[in-house]
Design a protein that fits this description.
By secondary structure, the chain is of the alpha/beta class. It is built from 16 helices and 14 strands. The strands form four sheets. It has an eight-stranded parallel sheet. A two-stranded parallel sheet has the order 1-2. A two-stranded antiparallel ribbon has the order 3-4. The longest helix has 28 residues. It is globular, with a radius of gyration of 24 Å. It binds D-xylose and nickel (II) ion (2 copies). One nickel (II) ion binds next to α9.
Amino acid sequence: MSEIFKIGKIAYEGPASKNPFAFRHYNPDEIVGGKTMREQLKFAMSYWHTLCGEGVDMFGVGTADKSFGGKTPMEVAKKKVEAAFELMDKLGIDYFCFHDKDIAPEGESLKEFQANLDEIVPLIKENMKKYNKKLLWGTANLFNNPRFVHGAGTGCNADVYAYAAAQVKKALDITMELGGMGYVFWGGREGYETLLNTDMGLELDNLARLLRMAVDYARGKGYTGDFYIEPKPKEPTKHQYDFDTATVLAFLRKYGLEKDFKMNIEANHATLAQHTFQHELCTARINGAFGSIDANQGDTLLGWDTDQFPTDVYNTTFCMLEVLRAGGFVNGGLNFDAKARRASMTDEDIFLSYIAGMDSFALGLKIAQKIVDDGRIDAFIEKRYASFKTGIGADIVSGKATLESLSDYALSLNVVEEKTSGGQEYLESVINDIMFGGAL
Ligand code: XLS
Ligand code: NI
Ligand code: NI
């Protein structure tokens, strides 16, 4: 088989290396926090951005050609499989994620789409074996085709709903066939533009019905992986139903689905919801719903999902701190739902983008582990809440306290003043000390 990318395998060369095609921080076999970096980080390649994204934007056509020498749509799909595995192999990425539509052309009908998928999936399976790669998660694209203009699971047309269900069923079948560890529902067009034409109650009931059907179907077939919801507050619709983690948790609990779903948290979606990435991860963690991560970053000056490769090390650090606090990934991982900028259109840019993202997360992991080992942050938090360990605080936590007993207690104190510092500036400087102390 001939090479598609004229770039060799990317190796770890250490922080002193100036070779752009080398890792400076991601050393797959190095142990951090009791596991290898490869196990801690579980990097995945996003099929859509990497093999399908050509740099189209609102004002211009693509700048990168992703046909990889194929001519017909099916030829191109096969070439993409080759390119995908060559890329993962060269970058040392163990996992990938895809939408049904990324891997095979839709054709003219549902039957044709499924036949195309049936031709490509065995090829993918073969390559997974050959290169020892795994499927982190699969999903169905229920947003691109014009039929989903009013939504898929939350649309107004029952035929479209059934079509969406057929796509979900097939995408689940493929995910199971490929031994996938997860299945994602990102609510593409599940939202609304105006309540003047929207029955929000029915739309949400129907979405819950679709999720329930998907879970029952896959579990009935013996699927043991995770189901994820990927929150996002807006884009493409003005109001996406899966706004953020807290909103999704309330939805899942209303419909009794909370045991069946975890979160797939995307950094750029968190910031669109006016949250930090860490806030979303923490909300998922404390609710037992931490699952997987779409690793990318937005731009604070732009109000949309720019899906940039993550290079902000503060963010990767606080992300990995949450991952460590959650006890690490189980079925999830770090999927680079990220694309090189439109002006970064060369094959080299694909490699350089992944290297940048992987190195930034490797640094984040190392620093997060240092924060844990250093202990100053945890000790500060521990001390800050110490009053809940004994006396009246312990009564509050154990449930022994009542409104009356607290009132009596407060009256016995009569005057309560709070003069203890929250220490934010000190703690921020501790983080900088851990990151840069001694390094410069
Ligand atoms: C879009 C989403 C999408 C999901 C998969 O904003 O991030 O790419 O991750 O459907
Ligand atoms: Ni995503
Ligand atoms: Ni996104």
